[in-house]
Amino acid sequence: MTGQIPQSFIEELLARTDIAEIIGGRISLRRAGANFIACCPFHQEKTASFTVSAAKQFYHCFGCGVSGDAIQFLTEHDGLHFVEAVETLASRAGLAMPIETQESNQTARSAPVYEILAIAAAFYQTQLRTHAVAEKAHQYLKKRGLTGQIAKQFGLGFAPPGWDALVKNLGTDQTRIDALILAGLVVKKEAGRYYDRFRDRILFPIRDRRGRVVGFGGRVMGSEGEPKYLNSPETLVFNKGSELYGLYEARLGNRALTSLLVVEGYMDVVSLAQFGIKNVVATLGTAVTEKQIDALFRQASQLIFCFDGDKAGQAAAKRALPLILPHMKEGRRVRFMLLPAGEDPDSLVRKLGQVAFLDRVERASLLSDFLFEDLTAHLDLHHLDSRAQLVTLAKPLIKLVPPGVLQQMLYDRLAELAGVNSQVVQKKYGNKKNNILSNRAVRELALPPSPAYQLVAMMLEHRELVLKAGESTEFRGLEIAGANLLCATIEILRFDSTIGIEAFKEQLPENCVSQFSYDALKRIVDRIPQGGVDQEFLGALQNLRGAAQEQAMESLLIKAKTGVLSTDEKAQLKNLLAQREKNRVD
């Protein structure tokens, strides 16, 4: 069957495969009777619920429900595509792939390319150790803080100066030369002569998910007039938009990756690994692609995109957003880390060290914060037309997010920034016939924000008001927008009322960061007439306490219908009902 692997071959392959050996090579299994058990590699757990049956050649997790055979495990755990998983198992079992499949024909054409790339990688590594002029490469790597051990781990090599060192050593016959050309390592001149593509450069071998060398990145050591990086061209086995440098090495260091830091350069990956930060990959000199994002999420549920702090880095981050948003399924998380101007991950980790660098990673902006900070950077949200423009800019991006909790939260955040009702944002704006705000929408722009946000805004601008706010425990668990942020604000300002806004934001709990926008909060205060802040504060506080009382009373009434209230709960409900009646009379 052309383009498919026959089912009979799959069955024979699985019959010759020991699933316990395959899985046991990747996670720690222990025997339990006729089966093996382990903590599941597909979700976090403390009690082992992942079972492997050698008799049935099958695995199943009673915790999260995943199950399958050896092929399924390699696709889910190792991130391989189906054909790659079959090829991996076939190689272990000593079976040849069926010759009638398109994939196996591709494999047959690619085999000599993979072979010559592996030989070339070994040649370049040898040159780094033994070549007469390799000392400058040694000094360059030492200057960058790299040890021989890390160079060996990543297979770093050295392409000697001169035009044909590789051709002379590996091009022993025409078949070899043709393979070198197919691999992108040698270029043919018009006169029938050949020259090496990589000359006088540090070489970084690029490996696929199976550890095979598919190409190289070459870096100059200070030569003027030369491009800093030179990559292998597109070949039968190498596509820059699909591969990620360092992914194979990252997985070797941790099979159960939960997060990946995505950087822009080969040296960034190696330098961070030198400092013990091993969950790092790099795009190959190009902007991140959809294929790379898909490959990344196959390996980890959280991605942190790290960009240089210059204009080019900021532009790259903005270009990445529309590509990332469609991949934001439930359980996935993305952060953006913009570095200080003039720094890259390599230079910054050498300057700060591991602990401080990882602290910056932890404080990277959430996708939602980055999205709205970028969109509002050049808008003055004091004006209605700017708020309308924000909705126009943001809505097409939010629509890219798969329907679910995150998409709804983004709509809610947009509504908050624009000063409109969330349903208005989702239903009224973005009309294909015209984007002019309806009269109702204009009126809704003037709706007051949540009283919790009002209190936060006023306390940040007038710090003495925190003394009038009461205890944070009074509002904890309150189901109203901004309640968590209010509790955190009271606690932070009570501890240090002089704290700066950036330091304040850094101290916010994770569940409050996406709710915080200093500019939006400041606009709330700007709308309050001079001399009226105290009155507005007490009014918002009264409204919030009223909402808290209503919520507590509603909870007790529901419990009274379905169960029995304790003596204290009966007294509490009686007081709440009396207070509501008093408020109504007042």
Key terms for this structure?
single chain; 586 residues; alpha+beta; DNA Primase, Chain A; DNA primase DNAg catalytic core, N-terminal domain; Dna Topoisomerase Vi A Subunit, Chain: A, domain 2; 5 domains; five-stranded mixed sheet; 27 helices
Can you walk me through this structure?
This protein is of the alpha+beta class. The protein has 5 domains: 87 residues, Zinc finger, CHC2-typedomain (DNA Primase, Chain A, Alpha-Beta Complex), CATH 3.90.580; 130 residues, Alpha-Beta Complex (DNA primase DNAg catalytic core, N-terminal domain); 125 residues, Dna Topoisomerase Vi A Subunit, Chain: A, domain 2; 55 residues, no CATH class; 135 residues, DNAb Helicase, Chain A, CATH 1.10.860.10. 50% of the residues lie in helices and 11% in strands. The protein is built from 27 helices and 16 strands. The protein starts with 6 loop residues before the first helix and ends with a helix.
